[in-house]
Specification:
The chain is α+β, with helices and mostly antiparallel strands and 365 residues long. The chain has three domains: 135 residues, Beta Polymerase, domain 2; 92 residues, Hydrophobic Seed Protein (Orthogonal Bundle), CATH 1.10.110; 56 residues, Orthogonal Bundle (Serum Albumin, Chain A, Domain 1), CATH 1.10.246. It is 49% helix and 12% strand. The chain has 18 helices and ten strands. Helix 6 crosses helix 8. The longest helix has 19 residues. The N and C termini lie far apart (64 Å). Bound molecules: adenosine-5'-triphosphate and magnesium ion. The site of magnesium ion has 4 residues, from strand 2.
């Protein structure tokens, strides 16, 4: 990955620009952690980058990052910038492209995120990020109070890095979190959710939850049920317990999953009908929250006689023929009945048996 990234740097530098790998990739590389994507900082503007890379995706917002995909690696390339005056501690009111790497590093959040690699593979570390990496400490670039006031998302980022890397927070950072945490309410729910997603999907999510509670951020973030989280097996199980779909933005798949997991929390996840109704994944998540045996849930699910309506050995035309009435609500009633009987092993899933059962119970429908 590094070799490929250095090639990209050289492509940019051969055109007469400066370019460096920066941020998460360098930090994780030095820690021996794999990265998914690579951030590059350069004095080339998005327009100039577009001329260099045919496949460059131009930023959707002004001053956004240019993204390119190369060798299945995603690069986010940002132009050196200075961020001038912040509105509502949300986002910079004005950004200015500059020509100076040092100044670009100074606007970044934490020292460990300012280490660069140049086109020769050499480390550039103006702000002593490596010392803090070695000391395993999260320290802001400059005054923590000011940096959190400019952009309070940095509070969440500090906790995310402290948990995912298992680092300590610098004392100044701790004090600034307490002093500035009220500013989190000015952030958009989108930005907060994005950061919380990263925190909760990490293997060290438990530490993230503990830190949020320790600093009382559950109140600031309106996560009233944060203290009820005792299992951090999956992102979706955490959001299900938090149950904040009315406040935070979730896509439809996430929403449906959260609703179903909450329903599955109220039933017996070893029960055949519950397993069938909510499916394996939802029952596993609900089971994890309740501390149930995941293997047992999987085993019982795999042993179910049917996994969907389609597995029943009868068609709706056959049902209509037996009842001899125009299609109506009775079809669903019969299906529900057959599913239950078959799942509880009271009825064999054979066409003949199913038909016989319907005829025998015909008065019910
Ligand atoms: P990861 O990609 O693993 O989530 P990252 O540190 O690369 O971590 P990104 O969101 O990709 O995080 O940001 C890239 C770099 O941009 C960061 O390393 C940091 O230098 C800078 N940065 C990101 N967000 C902020 C912010 N809110 N304030 C200041 N600098 C930031
Ligand atoms: Mg990154």
């Amino acid at each position: 990955m590094l070799d490929n990234a250095i090639k990209i740097l050289n492509i940019i530098c051969d055109k007469g620009y400066k370019a460096y790998i920066v941020g998460g990739f360098v930090r994780d590389y030095l820690l021996g952690i794999n990265s998914n994507d690579i951030d590059i900082t350069t004095n080339a503007t998005p327009k100039e980058l577009q001329e260099i890379f045919d496949n460059a995706c131009i930023p959707s917002t002004d001053y956004g990052a240019v993204t390119i995909n190369n060798n299945s690696i995603r690069y986010e390339i940002t132009t050196f910038r200075k961020e001038i005056s912040y509105t509502n501690n949300r986002k910079p009111e004005k950004i200015e492209y500059i020509d100076d790497l040092y100044k670009d590093l100074e606007r970044r959040d934490f020292t460990i995120n300012t280490i660069c690699i140049d086109k020769n593979g050499d480390i550039i570390d103006f702000l002593k990020g490596r010392d803090d990496l070695e000391k395993k400490i999260i320290k802001t670039v400059g005054n923590a109070m000011e940096r959190f006031e400019e952009d309070s998302l940095r509070i969440l980022r500090a906790l995310r890095f402290a948990s995912s890397l298992d680092f300590e927070l610098d004392n100044e950072v701790k004090e600034a979190i307490i002093a500035k945490k009220h500013l989190l309410k000015n952030l958009s729910y989108n930005r907060k959710k994005e950061e919380l997603d990263k925190m909760f999907s990490n293997v060290n999510a438990k530490k993230g939850v503990e830190l949020l509670l320790k600093f009382g951020l559950d109140k600031e973030l309106e996560l009233d049920r944060l203290k009820d989280i005792n299992n951090t097996e999956s992102l979706i199980s955490i959001w299900s317990i938090l149950n904040v779909t009315d406040i935070y933005p979730f896509n439809n798949t996430e929403k449906e999953m959260i609703i179903n997991i909450n329903k599955a929390l109220k039933v017996n996840n070893y029960d055949a009908l519950s397993l069938y109704k909510y499916g394996l994944y939802v029952n596993q998540q609900a089971g994890a929250i309740k501390g149930l045996d995941k293997k047992k849930i999987t085993r019982l699910y795999n042993r179910l006689k049917i996994h969907s309506k389609k597995d029943l050995d009868i068609t709706s035309d056959e049902i209509i023929n037996i009842i001899n009435k125009p299609p109506g609500e009775y079809i669903k009633l019969i299906y529900d009945d057959l599913e239950k009987e078959v799942l509880y092993n009271k009825l064999k899933n054979h066409n003949r048996n199913l038909k016989k059962y319907i005829i025998k119970n015909i008065n019910k429908y």
